[in-house]
Amino acid sequence: MWPSSLVYSPLKNNMTKIDQFNIVIKGVGGQGLITLLQVIAEAAFSEGYEVKTSELHGLSQRGGSVDVHVRFGKKIYSPLIGRGKADLILGLEMQEALRGLYFANSKTKFLINKQIMPIPMAKSTSEQEMMNIFSKSLKNTVVVPAAEICQKNLGTSVVSGIYLVSLAVFQGFIPLKPASVIAAIKKVIAPKYFDLNKKTFDLAEQYGKK
Amino acid sequence: MTKELLSSDSGKKAILLGNEAAIRGALEAGVQFVSTYPGTPASEIGNIFYEIQSSEDKIPSLYFEYSTNEKVAMDAAVGASYSGLKTMVAMKNFGLNVASDALLPFVYTGTVGPTVVFIADDPSCYSSAQAEENTRAFAYLSHIPVLEPADAQECKDFVKLAFQISEKYHVPVMVRTTTRVSHQKMPVVLGKLATSNSASVGKFIKDTHRFVTMPPRVLEMKDELLAKIDKIQVLGEAKQGFTLFNAAKKSAVGIITSGISHLYAMEAMQELKVSLPVLKINFFHPLPEKKIREFLKKYKKVLIVEELEPYIEKEVSRIAKDANCKAEILGKKLLPTTGEMKPEFVVEALAKVLNKKYSRQNISLNIVVPQRPPILCPGCPYWSVIAAVKSVADPKEVVFGGEIGCYMLFGHAAIGLQDYLSCMGSSVGIGHGIKKATGGRQKLIAFVGDSSFFHAGMPALVNAVFNKSNPLIIILNNETTAMTGHQPHPASVNATQPLDIETIVRACGVKYVKTIDPKNRQEFTQTVKDFLAKDEVSVIVAKQPCLFAVKK
Q1: Between vectors from CA A106 to CA A8 and to CA B365, what angle results, nearest 5°?
Q2: A106 touches chain B (CB under 8 A)
Q3: Segment B367-384 mean pLDDT
Q4: CATH number at residue B484
Q5: Backbone dihedral angles phi then psi of residue B413, each to the nearest 5 degrees
Q6: Is the pLDDT of residue A10 over 80?
Q7: A206 to chain B nearest CA, in Å?
Q8: What are the contacts of B319-328 at 24+ separation with CB within 8 A?
Q9: Could you tell me if B475 and B443 lie in one domain?
Q10: Is B183's CB within 8 Å of A57's CB?
Q11: What is residue B256's three-state secondary structure?
């Protein structure tokens, strides 16, 4: 299921401390990017890393393109990730993920929700065109129908982002322990939604199995 | 709000947003009075104090209010300080423009209760339509001391420090952040909360010598203020006005920086694997000039890493000249003045200064994804207003005045109902000017939000009535301050006694006024048509709550 080049195999067994890890989350305002940022930040912090994040509020949140940044490692100064410096780009929407190229270098991994949200008054790129671009030009990309999987199994796609983050951790895309992530979810998400998010987390663990 | 914000567990680290850390700093300083008007990137200051004071965790020793505009918030803070309370007033950059009339005399009279003025700038204008403002310039205008934190920890520390300076020197102190500081998260070390379980009751002790700025006293006050600033400069020179990094390193190149740019400078050195001496400025005003002079003398080249206008660079150049120092000062030759600073700009500039090769390119594909600008939410009541207005007002004939709030998205290409956009309250004020200048020949609809109406729209409405022009003003009453996060205002669903906007408009002398639910399309459309033909000011209050306007 997963191309082996895409899995940080050493991290799966031997979680040695990394110097620095940079994640850009791209999506559309209102998709819950800040919650994901909080989850990753809390998980990294619980593992003893320095953490810095950057987010946007206000006008920029009103359904426009948004990116938020999470960085962790031994010594982190800037809250912003520089051009070409992302290790991982999490795309909650395919077109937005493509905007993340500014932060990508040849080694950057992409983990993308297979979903297109139409851009009002503009011609959106079709899902097929997107898939072609990713498979041809961005070798380190995994596109997962997170929204579809969550809708089918959990009856809602609102947790797609949590699904992607959990998946990224289970698959070694983010060098953090799954246990830290579920603890962070528990800390960040309102108690009444914890069960749904825990189910999402468990569902991500099952991805690609059986 | 992060749950740990109110934790009594001092010594513990918690991940806080810059603005949350500033709040924690205020609570650790024992703040007693907070006033604000919402505006990104400062909004969380109000949001969180409001949330705390409306919850079971309500702090008895703290009074919080959303004021109707920033000037009124500043006035309220001045009154609280005069009455001896520890006070914080928070707003975004443009808010301080509105409040500046109250700020300047306050800096002259000085404080009784220590007072912190918290201002957040928005380089790159992520949530600011009107200008890319650099509030540090208010230091020159008003002489107010200005501290510049770089990260969330410093937001907390500098707010506390600002209270201490204010307490000692009896002058309000500004803490100035930017979006990337206010909306940055990091683990912050919590200190001891200094709030109490009894209400804070101040007392205004009459002292006309102190509180009345009539000339010639006002000029004495100015001298007293300048003397205070000199003392704060001495304090800054001694320790707190700056931080030195890698001071012992032998180097031909040094860096002077402040605020968020400091983090990018450190990042750039990490990236280039160099370790250079850095003088980080904590007090933008008064600057630690002696420290700067000492620093300049040690290096052949000094790179000034500074976001927006080169205020520090100019000061450093002056200091260098006065000290006959030959160091080459580099700054805006290599770094932008427009738009926010970014880590990649600093690493590239530093590489040039050091003659190091550096290339870090990003992947680029020859694909253009269309822009996705922000737009009104699906189901927003404003869509009904848009549809009704478009059906009767021909854009070739009617001028549409825009304003600050969600409805500035009326400028979206898909909507096209915005011919000018300036600042709070100005759709009406500018509309009146256009009406007068064009002899009333051009039809004009000015859109103004409910919170904006109370903020600055009311004086403009009175002016249009008083000076007899005839714009059609559509007050978009969605019963909340939607854009900045649904804060209450005097007519909002979560106000204790909501005011009726139509009654106010009538009392201003407007004869043609109607409150209509925009979903009532026919009546709305007909009224727009009728009112556009009037030769007096007319007002439609489009009343339909925002989908997210909930009673709190």
Answers
A1: 135
A2: yes
A3: 89
A4: 3.40.50.970
A5: -55, -30
A6: no
A7: 31
A8: B319/B289, B319/B292, B319/B293, B320/B293, B320/B296, B323/B293, B323/B296, B323/B297, B325/B293, B325/B296, B325/B297, B327/B254, B327/B296, B327/B297, B327/B299, B327/B300, B327/B301, B327/B302, B328/B300, B328/B301, B328/B302
A9: yes
A10: yes
A11: strand
The domain of B42 spans 3-240
Using a CB-CB distance cutoff of 8 angstroms, which residues of chain A are in contact with residue B364? Answer: 101
Each residue's pLDDT tens digit, B406-425: 999 999 888 999 999 999 99
Confidence band for A12, pLDDT divided at 50, 70 and 90:
very low
Residues B101 and B216 in one domain: yes
**Measured between beta carbons, which residues in chain A are less than 8 angstroms from residue B413?**
121
Total domains present in chain B: 3
Q: What is the pLDDT of residue B373?
A: 85
Task: ipTM value, please give it.
Answer: 0.94
Task: Grade residue A15 by pLDDT with cuts at 50, 70 and 90.
Answer: low
The domain that contains B304 carries what CATH number? 3.40.50.920
For the cut 80, the answer to whether the pLDDT of residue B221 exceeds it is yes
* B358 found inside a domain: no
C-beta atoms of B44 and A104 within 8 A? no
For B97-156, how does the pLDDT look when each residue is reduced to its tens digit (9 = 90+)?
A: 999 999 999 999 999 999 999 999 999 999 888 899 999 999 999 999 999 999 999 999
pTM (2 d.p.): 0.96
**Residues from chain A contacting residue B264 (CB–CB below 8 Å):** 77-78, 80
Residues B337, B407 within the same domain: no
- The shortest C-alpha distance from A43 to chain B (Å) reads 11
